[in-house]
Design a protein that fits this description.
The protein is an alpha/beta fold and 302 residues long. It has one domain: P-loop containing nucleotide triphosphate hydrolases (Rossmann fold, 3-Layer(aba) Sandwich), CATH 3.40.50.300. The chain contains 10 helices and 11 strands. The protein binds adenosine-5'-triphosphate and iron/sulfur cluster. Its main location: cytoplasm.
């Protein structure tokens, strides 16, 4: 491995980096990144988790974790991440950083060209004070854009424990884009932990029964064809949308305290949703896939 850089110094205390990507927009990449963070957080091994949102033009992780409204604090040792479990006591384990924390208003948008995006990503990788992490989940924009190239350019030379999760929906158009995303990971030799088929069927809000309104299993078939691990199918779950999309700060306490209470509430309530129950096996497969990558075993998808 090459000489130390600000990024390698910062990330040497991160055990594994999981890049969450999708070929197409709106297939649920941010919701999968959030659910992965929440599910890993609930493991009895109590891992330390970071979630970095580099979807610069559409950051949604702060909203999904109930952290909208927080700003970034600068310390002498870099940017301090925002902790979703700050209300849990003195040893929070779910750290979050997003361009959303840098915007003055939620409605502000980032209109940047490639070099500025690249500089922002470099700063996220070199300046955030994550501390020791077991998993750093990186939520990326849809497709294979400047952000992906910058990310790989910065990470590949300094961090060997990198892998990707691909998210798709079962429809043919999303699958075509997922194949493009897979080709990208192969071109840059990024191991793929597996594929998630999101919005596969529908959870009835009355009885919890899963019905298949549209096509399903497209992702599962693609995984089989491409020799990828199928990490699981996640149905459309209205309970999940209510929880993650309506994540406005509660009115209790002062401004930051109100946000932290909201985030803590999401952390607890998520575990009771049908999605959380299904996601547990996805998270187990991700953890098993990481063990393979770390042992240097051949990984499907490369
Ligand atoms: N399994 C699901 N059940 C119900 N709603 C879902 C599910 N997955 C995602 N959603 C909802 O669909 C919308 C899009 O999801 P999300 O923002 O995660 O997609 P994305 O792929 O990250 O989008 P973008 O292309 O904007 O980055 C959100 O409102 C999210 O809450
Ligand atoms: S899934 Fe069950 S509760 Fe939902 S509409 Fe069908 S029968 Fe009714």
């Amino acid at each position: 491995m090459s000489e130390e850089t600000p990024i390698s110094r910062r990330l040497k205390s991160v055990r594994h980096i999981i890049i969450v990507c999708s070929g197409k927009g709106g297939v649920g990449k941010s919701s999968v990144s959030t659910q992965l963070a929440l599910s890993l957080h609930a493991l009895s091994s109590r891992p330390r988790i970071g979630i970095l949102d580099i979807d610069l033009t559409g950051p949604s992780i702060p909203r999904m974790l109930g952290l909208d409204g927080h700003g970034v604090h600068q310390s002498s040792d870099g940017w301090v991440p925002v902790y979703a479990d700050a209300q849990q006591g003195s040893d929070p384990r779910l750290a979050c950083m997003s361009v959303g924390f840098l915007l003055k208003k939620k409605s502000d948008s980032v209109v940047w060209r490639g070099p500025k995006k690249n500089a922002m990503i470099r700063q996220f990788l070199s300046d955030v004070r994550w501390g020791e992490l077991d998993y750093l989940i990186i939520d990326t924009p849809p497709g294979t854009s400047d952000e992906h190239l910058s990310l790989l350019e910065h990470l590949a030379p300094v961090h060997s424990k990198l892998s990707a999760v691909i998210v798709t929906t079962p429809q043919a158009i999303a699958l075509l884009d997922a194949i493009k995303c897979l080709s990208f990971t192969r071109a840059v030799k990024l191991p793929v932990l597996g594929l998630i088929e999101n919005m596969s069927g529908y959870v009835c809000p009355c009885c919890g029964e899963i019905s298949n309104m549209f096509s399903t299993k497209g992702g599962e078939e693609m995984a089989r064809r491409e020799g990828l691990t199928f990490l699981g199918a996640l149905p459309v779950d209205t309970e999940l949308v209510t929880l993650l999309d309506a994540a406005e700060p509660s009115s209790a306490g002062g401004p930051d305290e109100a946000i932290d209470i909201k985030a803590f509430d999401i952390l607890k309530r998520y575990q009771e949703t049908s999605s959380a129950k299904l996601f547990r096996s996805v998270a187990d497969r991700v953890v098993a896939g990481i063990a393979h990558v770390e042992q240097g075993s051949a990984v499907a998808g490369v």
